Structure formats: C-alpha cells, structure tokens
Amino acid sequence: MIRFFILFLLATSLFSSTVERHRWSNGETYLQFLERQKLPLRKLYYNLDKDDQRLTEEMRSGVHYQILRDNAGNIEQMLLPLNDELQIHIYKDKKSYKFEAIPIISETKTEAFSSKIISSPMYTILKETGSKKLAQIFVASFKHSLNFKNDIRQGDPLVMIYEQKYRLGRPFSMPTLKVAMIEMRHKRHYIYLNDDDRYYDEKAHEVEGFLLARPVRGARISSYFTKRRWHPILHKWKAHLGVDYAARRGTPVIAAGSGRIIYAARLGTYGNLIKIRHNDGYETRYAHLKSFRRGIHRGKYVKKGQTIAYVGTTGRSTGPHLHFELRKRGRAINPLRVVQVTTKKLRGKEKKAFLRLKKNYDESVELHLNNQTSFKKLPPFENMSYIHLMEKNNG
After folding, report:
1. Residue 342 above 70 pLDDT?
2. Signal sequence span per UniProt (predicted)?
3. Is residue 303 located within the same domain as residue 156?
4. Rounded CA gap, 93 and 113, in Å?
C-alpha cells in the first residue's frame, strides 16, 4: 500500500494546520534533528533498515524542509528533501510517528534574465538574482574557455536561460542551464545544452568540464543512476545514487580521475569501498570490490586511469559488478552526465540537429537582450495555512 500526502496551499487562515519552512542547519545530522524536534529516535531511525538509515545521511545543509503543525504546535507531518526526486516523509498515524521515502511532487519552469557586467559575472549575477547557484553555474560553464579576470569589461551583456524546479511553490535543487551567453570585447560566447545532455560551444565542440574515465573499461552498464526507484521486492521508494558496471570478478577498476584516496576499507552494504577526493569538491566512490591493488591505502595520491582495485561482489550485491558514484560537495550526481573519455565534436546528423537547436537558443537570447529581461524575484516565504489529503492506493 502506497501513501501519498498532498499539500494544497490556500490563501486563507481558516484551517488549523500551519506549514513552516526551515533551512537545514550546517553540520546537523538527522539524529540530532530528531532530538531537537523531540521525535522518537528508535521509531524514526534505529528501527529502520540499513538502506533507509543510509538515506538519512543524504540530508545536506541549506536544504529547505517543511513542518506541518496543528493548532497546538504539535508536529503532524514533515517533508525532508534528499534530492530533487526523493524526500523523507515523517507523519503522525494516530499516536505514533512513521517514516517513509516518497517521490517529490514538483513542476519545472523555464526562466531567463539578462544583465550587464558590473565588475564580474559572479558579482553581477549575485546582485541581479541573489542566487549563488545561478552565479556558480554560469562561471563554471565558461571556466575552461574564457578569462573573466582579464577580458571582461563593465557594461558587457550576459544572458542566462535555465530550468528551475519548484516544490510547494518555492525553487529547489540546482537549476539546469539551457544556454548562457556573454559578450566580451564585442564578441559573443555561448554555451548550449544539447539533446544528449552535454554542453557544446557555438562550433559544436563539447565543452571541457570535469573529465572522467570510465572506471571499468568495456563493461556493460547493468543499472543506471536514479534518485527514485520503486523497489519491486521491498515495496518502497529507494534511490540508486550511482551507476553499476557488470564485469567478471577480478576485472581491474581504474581511478576515474586523479586525486587522493580518503577511504579504503569495508563499509556496510558497500562492501569493500574506495573513496577518492578530486579537485573542485568532487569525490568518486568504488564499491563491492573484490580487493584493493597492492599499495592502495588512505592518503595515497592516484592518477586518472591507474588501477586501484578489482571487481567483486562484497557487501549487498547479487553478482560481480562495480557500483560507481560521483559526488560534488557531498551531493550525489549522475556520473554519466560528466563521464567522458575525450571531448566530443559533433558531426553529420548530430551536428545538423544541434545547429537547429542552437538557432532557437540564439533567437531566445536575442529576444531577452532586446527586452532587457530582468530576474523575477519571489516574495519572502510566510507561514501559511494548508489542508492535506491522503489517498490510499493498493499496489
């Protein structure tokens, strides 16, 4: 039986339940949070299975969560987002609190703005939008191709078109950049998101980013990254925060990027696990390993392409494979969006399709430049009255 609790915003205060919006405190663990809210630790953590306990570790500082209280101030429900697809739902059933992981109900909007450089793109976008995420995405997109420090001039125009997810009427998760443009020394520079989910410049050359090698050469992908998946055996929503590469036991596993090993030991359902820290806040994880290569240990620096371990089936595993994860500042991201052996240059039909997409993007950029589209800021969040409905479906 699957429960879906849906919150409906009402512009009235006739209903007794009130929703509060809070930001997850820096350094606070899920257990500390439960203690602070005076919620039962055994019921909502210690009695959970290992997978659900590990899910709670995905809570990150800065994430906005919601608490639904009755008119006496008692907690009725809580929604704690883990990523942009899955959230923890704590709710009161009669006199007892219960835990479940459920999908996030959201809508995606395409948004845009144009601005003129004040002193730097980072400062300009921050001042225009108040969003560190948008500023970081823009600067990172041109990181390997433009020199903002020496070539930028006050008054140079820029445009961003991006997709933003909204949850309960507020933006959440990282925006997805669709196209970015900045003019420098009277020349325009573009970044485009193509239909293959990779970024290209105006010449149809793939934009160099954080380049990773495939950790098992020639292996078949047996399971893809997903932030929500209905488990057919456990009958609950779970996340698969990595990519599985099926390969024979003993197949060499290579470091996907250069970096320093910060963990090399056994860890719960991961089995034998290696974690490597890379530049710019990236970390890769290699799980279910048969064994580590001789000399591999915590603190060792390894180079991209270097053999570090061998495929196995340790931990919670039904057969020999590598479970590979990529994280940035602790948050799991899809490795296939950045895993590349070499940068790609589009040709033939792929290039023609990209150029059609590019033409539409360019027309949109021109429109926002001419209209001087400004960023639309949302009003501050205020505690609002809500009602909630519960639907029960057999399944």
Report:
1. no
2. none
3. no
4. 45
In a domain, 311, yes or no: yes
The dihedral through the CA atoms of 292, 295, 297, 300 has a sign that is negative
Q: Cα(211)–Cα(115) distance, rounded to whole angstroms?
A: 31
Same domain as 143, residue 61: no
Question: What is the distance between the alpha carbons of residues 348 and 300, in angstroms, rounded to a whole number?
Answer: 44
Whether residue 49 is predicted with pLDDT greater than 50 in this model: the reply is yes
Q: What gap in Å lies between CA 127 and CA 138, rounded to an integer?
A: 14
CA–CA dist 214, 225 (Å, integer) = 15
DSSP track, 133-173: HHHHHHHHHTTTT--HHHH--TT-EEEEEEEEEEETTEEEE
User: In total, how many domains does the chain have?
Assistant: 3
Q: For the chain, first and last CA: distance in Å?
A: 5
For residue 165, give the nearest of 211, 245, 110, 218 by alpha carbon.
Answer: 110
The structure tokens listed for 360 are: 């539409």
Place of tokens 């339940």: 17
- Provide the β-strand partners of residue 354: none
Indicate if the pLDDT at residue 150 is higher than 90.
Answer: no
pTM for this model (two decimals): 0.63
Q: 96 and 112 share a domain?
A: no
Rg of the Cα atoms in the chain = 23
**Is the pLDDT score of 27 beyond 70?**
yes
Domain with 290, as residue range(s), is 220-337
- Residues 151 and 184 sit within 8 Å (Cβ to Cβ): yes
**Cα–Cα nearest to 97, from 64, 124, 74:** 74
DSSP structure string for 251-281 = -EEE-SS-EEEEEEEE-GGG-EEEEEE-GGG
CATH code: domain of residue 190: 3.10.450.350
One-letter amino acid at 295 equals G
Contact criterion met (CB below 8 Å) for 243 and 336 = yes
* Distance from C-alpha of 158 to C-alpha of 177, rounded to nearest angstrom: 14
Same domain, 79 and 48: yes
Half-sphere exposure of 186 (CA within 13 A, CB side): 0
In tens, the pLDDT along 239-280 reads 888 999 999 999 999 999 888 999 999 998 899 999 999 877
The token duo for 351 is 């290039």
